[in-house]
Amino acid sequence: MSNTKEIQTDYQAYRKELDKYTELCAQTPANSTAYQVYKHKKEEAWKNCDRLEVVLQAIAVAED
């Protein structure tokens, strides 16, 4: 059960990061270096969120 809580905490942190970099991308000119950095960090956060969502769904199924 504590592993599930840790995974949920990690997911929430990555979700917050995803929201942050999505907002920064929206505010930054697309031809800038900063935009490329934000875009990369956003993609990494999205991948981590996606991966953890799958894990959390698998745990939920296993617990049913």
Explain what the structure shows.
- This protein is an all-alpha fold.
- Helices cover 89% and strands 0% of the residues.
- Helix 1 runs antiparallel to helix 2.
- The radius of gyration is 15 Å and the shape is elongated.
The separation of the N and C termini measures 14 Å
DSSP, total strands:
0
* CA gyration radius, whole angstroms: 15 Å
Percentage of β-strand residues = under 5%
Shape descriptor:
elongated
Q: Regions with pLDDT < 50 over 5+ consecutive residues?
A: none
- Helix/strand class: mainly alpha
- Give, in order, the helices and strands: HH
The averaged pLDDT comes out at 94
Tally of separate helices: 2
- Helical fraction equals over 70%
Main sheet record: none
List keywords for this structure.
mainly alpha
Secondary structure layout plus pairing:
Blueprint: H1 2-27, H2 33-63
What would a concise description of this structure say?
This protein has 64 residues and is an all-alpha fold. The protein has two helices and no strands.
